[in-house]
Amino acid sequence: MDRNNDYYGNWWGGNLRGVRDYPIDLGKYQSQLVYSPHDYGPLVYEQEWFKGPFVTASDEEAKRILYEECWRDNWAFIMEKGISPLLLGEWGGLTEGGDKLLDLNLKYLRSIRDYILENKFKLHHTFWCINIDSADTGGLFTRDEGTPFPGGRDLKWNDNKYDNYLYPVLWKTDDGKFIGLDHKIPLGKNGISISQLSDNPTTKPTPTPSATPTPTATSPKPTDAILYGDVNGDGKVNSSDVAMLRRYLIGLVNEINEEAADVNLSGAINSTDLTILKRYLLRSISELPFK
Predict the structure, then answer these.
(1) CATH of 17-164, one of 3.20.20.80, 1.25.40.10, 3.40.190.10, 3.10.350.10
(2) Ordered DSSP codes for the chain
């Protein structure tokens, strides 16, 4: 801010600077207060912090720029100083298309994803959005490339957006179950409630999406007779196997090539195998099984 501007530009709902000097006081109900900023990339609006050095910056440098020029002073300080719980109420954006700013939007999405992951279990978040009707962000449903699902009619699941941006920051246990916030109702067929997590001290939240348990002495041994990653048994390892494994984990299919799906030789098939398989197809790991 300079003498010609007496305001700080930001997203609607993104400027919580006033909390530093004028925090809300709910008295005896203070524990129920949650601040909730929104944050988006340049395809929603090309804010000043998406220009200049951000354009050519590496992902790590881009994240630093966003933190220093936007996140820290507008809302991250609330979490850092322990003022109140912080819910990033909206984040997301387009991941496909021909817009000239798409590459910068993807860089933004990687940056905010990694920042959320670094502050896992401190920075809460909700992803915008699931439907297809948000023109400047798109949704997890799409009519373009994706995975069909029962009842979806002409809609598909946007695997690219989910796999690369949302999935890594979802809360999961060591055995791959998704952690829901309801105290009684588990989060889907492959989930647990927050009470189940509290009641079972051996069920710990997994620290990162790519954590791979070390096989025990009883873990299966790799064999050349198994094409690891060939979940659907068609003799190839590709994105169809990722889609099949995901559908298996959420209970949409019951039969897969289980030996080939256990790509970390843990003796169990869970979201860790899905993560490893995706990393293999993205060439961040070079061979399967991965231990």
Answers:
(1) 3.20.20.80
(2) --TT--S----TTT--GGGGTS----GGGGGG--B--B---TTT---GGGSTHHHH--HHHHHHHHIIIIIIIIIIHHHHTTSS-EEEEEE----SS--TTHHHHHHHHHHHHHHHHHTTTTEEEEES-SSS--TTT--SEESSSSEE-TT-TT-EE-HHHIIIIIGGGS-BBTTS-EE-S-SSS-SSTTEE-HHHHHH-TT-PBPSSTT--PPP-TTSPPP-TTS-TT-TT-SS--SHHHHHHHHHHHTTS-----HHHH-TT-SSS-SHHHHHHHHHHHTTSS-SSS--
pLDDT in tens, 103-143: 999 999 999 999 999 998 899 999 999 998 899 999 999 99
How far apart, in Å, are the Cα atoms of 136 and each of 13, 45, 52? 17, 9, 22
Q: Give pTM, 2 decimals.
A: 0.71
Question: Rounded distance, CA 274 to CA 264, Å?
Answer: 10
